[in-house]
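Table 4 source record.
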Amino acid sequence: MTDSSPTAHRPPAQRAERTTAPAGIRPRRADARRSRAAVLDAAVRVLGERPEAGLGAVAAAAGVTRQTIYAHFASREGLLTAVVDHVTDEAVAAVDAVDLDRGPAADALLRLLDAAARATGRHPELIRVINSLPTSPEEDRDRHVPVVDRIARVVRRGQDGGEFTPDLPTAWLTTVVIALAHAAHGEAEGGGMTADEANAALHVTVLRALGADRNSPPASTPSRNGRPNPA
């Protein structure tokens, strides 16, 4: 059978021109990705230690020039926005690593809260900087969507399996979990409880609020950094 496609009649060199990227493009793109990653990693370290640090300090830590930073981010605010996304991605990866579909939903929910707490607890000063940024309610909600969606998924699984109350909307119970996590974090930050006490209280209160077995609350497992998850 004869190949009648247009490319079949072109010389091999012509066909190669259609499928081969111009020399140098791929290496440049790879270099740009590595440069951007180096700037982000440096920003997380520097701003985590010195929240007031400027772009010059970030550039020095990354081993690049200020011009390189501006090639990736239009301003300090743009860099901070990317840092927020970076920290959020870390938290989501930590949550996904604990396998939310394994075992009872109650256990999975506690693992989720502890994993998110460990992730955010690695950058306490940076989290304070992020929380101080002026954002609209829509931007703040979008920032939390990945973790919120995972909390909702576990809550829904618990409702479907009879572990959590089916009498209240999943969205409402998810909001309750997040509010309790914020309250526990604030209590520990304010010194009203130790971090371990607040984390233990969070575990018990969350499960009772969701209608889990009140007679046998699971033993609390403090997060590695001892901080309740601020979600």
